[in-house]
Specification:
Structural class: mainly alpha
CATH superfamily of the largest domain: HUPs
Distance between the termini: 36 Å
Bound molecules: tryptophanyl-5'AMP
CATH topology of the largest domain: Rossmann fold
Radius of gyration: 21 Å
CATH class of the largest domain: Alpha Beta
Largest sheet: 3 strands, parallel
Number of strands: 5
Length: 335
C-alpha cells in the first residue's frame, strides 16, 4: 500500500533568556500537539540570537538549556527532528540566495526590526535587518507546509511566503508556500503588569512575565498582582485587556471555553479568578519543571539528541539547496 506523506511543520525559538508562558502557549504547546500527526522539525535558532550582542559563554549554556527545556515540554526526539540551527549550514547558505530575492523596502517595514533597532540603538547591524530572510530560509529549506507561531511572527511569515513566491516566479517552481498556524486562543499572551504590551522575556519588570521554570509560589504571586480593571465581573469584552489576557491563559491551559470560564466565575470576584489562573498555570508547568531538571543534568543525552537531530535535518536540507543552486545557475558542487 502506498504510504501517505505527512505534511511538514517547521518552527523555531531563540535561545535568549528564559522561555515565557507566552512562548509556551503561543508556540511550544502546539508543537507538542502537532508532532503526533505531522512530520515536524523544531529548532533552537541560535544564529538568530546573535543579531543582538550575546556573551558567548552564556549563550552556549542557554542553547543547551533551551534544548533541554523543549524536551521537557514534550518535544519527542523520536517523533520530531529537534536540532540546533547553526549545526545545519544550509540555513545560512539559502539565506544568502533569498536575500537577493528580498527588497530593502520589505525589510524596512518589519515592525520587529523597528522595535529592536529602537531598543538596541547602538548596534543596528545588518543581521538585525536581514533576520527575516534567515527565518524564511529556515522554513523554505524544508519545503514546510505549516509554521506554528504566535501572532508576533505573522509579518515575518508573510514575508517568507512573498520571498518564496517571488523566487518561484523568477526561477520556476522550487519552494512550497508555507501556511501560518496561529492558535485562535493564546496567540498573543500579554504582560501581566501591562496587558497592552506583549509578554516578553526581555521585559525589565519580572512581574510582567511568567517564566516556564518559575516556582509555584512565584507564579501565584505574579498572577495575584496581575493588572486588571476596576470592574469585578469575569467576562471577555473590549477594554478589559487584563481580564481578556487572563481568560486566554486560563482557556489555553485548561481547555475550557470562554463561556465555561464566565459561568465558572459568575458571582465570584477577580481575586478568586486570579488565584485559579495561577493554580492552573502552576499545575500545567509542574511536570515541565520536573522533566527539565532531569534533561538539563544529562549532558550526554542532550549531545546524543542534538547530534541525531542535526544529522537528520542535514540529510533533508541538501535537496532544496541543490535545486536552488541549480536554478541560480551555479555549477554542481564537486563534493
Ligand atoms: P521567539 O524566540 O521570539 O518566540 C518563539 C515563539 O513564541 C511565540 N511567542 C508568543 N506567543 C504568544 N504570546 C507571546 N507573548 C509570545 N511571545 C513569543 C513566538 O510567536 C514564536 O512562535 N523569529 C522567531 C524564531 C524563528 C522562527 C523561525 C519561527 C526563527 N526562524 C522559523 C518559526 C519559523 C522568534 O524570534 O521567536
Amino acid at each position: 500500500m502506498e504510504e501517505i506523506q505527512k505534511k511538514r511543520i517547521f518552527s523555531g525559538i531563540q535561545p535568549t533568556g528564559v522561555f515565557t508562558l507566552g512562548n509556551y502557549i503561543g508556540a511550544i504547546k502546539n508543537w507538542n500537539d502537532l508532532q503526533k500527526d505531522f512530520d515536524c522539525l523544531f529548532s533552537v535558532v541560535d544564529m538568530h540570537a546573535i543579531t543582538v550582542r550575546q556573551d558567548p559563554t552564556k549563550l552556549r549554556q542557554q542553547i543547551l538549556n533551551s534544548y533541554a527545556l523543549l524536551l521537557a515540554c514534550g518535544i519527542d526526539p523520536d517523533k520530531s527532528i529537534l536540532f540546533i540551527q547553526s549545526h545545519v549550514a544550509r540555513h545560512a547558505e539559502l539565506s544568502w540566495v533569498l536575500s537577493c530575492f528580498t527588497q530593502f523596502g520589505e525589510l524596512s517595514r518589519m515592525t520587529q526590526f523597528k522595535d529592536k533597532s529602537a531598543r538596541h540603538a547602538d548596534n543596528i547591524n545588518a543581521g538585525l535587518f536581514t533576520y527575516p530572510v534567515l527565518m524564511a530560509a529556515d522554513i523554505l529549506l524544508y519545503q514546510t507546509d505549516m509554521v506554528p507561531v504566535g501572532a508576533d511572527q505573522k509579518q515575518h511569515l508573510e514575508l517568507a511566503r512573498d520571498i518564496a513566491a517571488r523566487f518561484n516566479s523568477v526561477c520556476g517552481d522550487t519552494f512550497k508556500i508555507p501556511e501560518p498556524y496561529i492558535p485562535k486562543t493564546g496567540a498573543r499572551i500579554m504582560s501581566l503588569a501591562d496587558p497592552t504590551k506583549k509578554m516578553s522575556k526581555s521585559d525589565e519588570n519580572p512581574n510582567g512575565f511568567v517564566a516556564i521554570l518559575d516556582e509555584p509560589d512565584v507564579i501565584m504571586r505574579k498572577f495575584k498582582r496581575a493588572v486588571t480593571d476596576s470592574d469585578s465581573i469575569v467576562r471577555y469584552s473590549e477594554g478589559k485587556d487584563g481580564i481578556n489576557n487572563l481568560m486566554a491563559i486560563y482557556a489555553s491551559v485548561t481547555g475550557k471555553s470562554f463561556d465555561e470560564i464566565e459561568r465558572e466565575f459568575d458571582g465570584k470576584g477577580y481575586g478568586d479568578f486570579k488565584a485559579a489562573v495561577g493554580e492552573a498555570v502552576s499545575d500545567a508547568l509542574r511536570p515541565i519543571r520536573e522533566n527539565y531538571k532531569r534533561y538539563s543534568a544529562d549532558k550526554a543525552y542532550l549531545e546524543n539528541c542534538y547530534t541525531k537531530g542535526a544529522e537528520m535535518a542535514n540529510k533533508i536540507s541538501f535537496r532544496t539547496l541543490d535545486k536552488v543552486y541549480k536554478k541560480c545557475g551555479f555549477i554542481k558542487k564537486p563534493f
